Amino acid sequence: MNIHAKNLVSITEANQNFSKVARLVDESGAVVILKNNVPRYLVIEVSAAEQEQLAADEDVMAVSKRLIEKNRQAYEVLAQ
Fold this sequence. Notes:
about 80 residues; alpha+beta; YefM-like fold; 2 domains; three-stranded mixed beta sheet; 4 helices; rod-shaped
């Protein structure tokens, strides 16, 4: 994820003008909220979070399939 300077918002500004934060998320997909000039929070659209979760689930399935294929003999012995 690329974060641009225009997508950085102080926590004070986010608190006082959350509609600006929401507008930036709509335009760019993500906003980082800074606390004491340190990135602290990430605001993203719900659909983007769901896509990330789906990708993570797919990664788990790929790893599971690879492990099953790699250890097929052991699984077959255990199944007996």
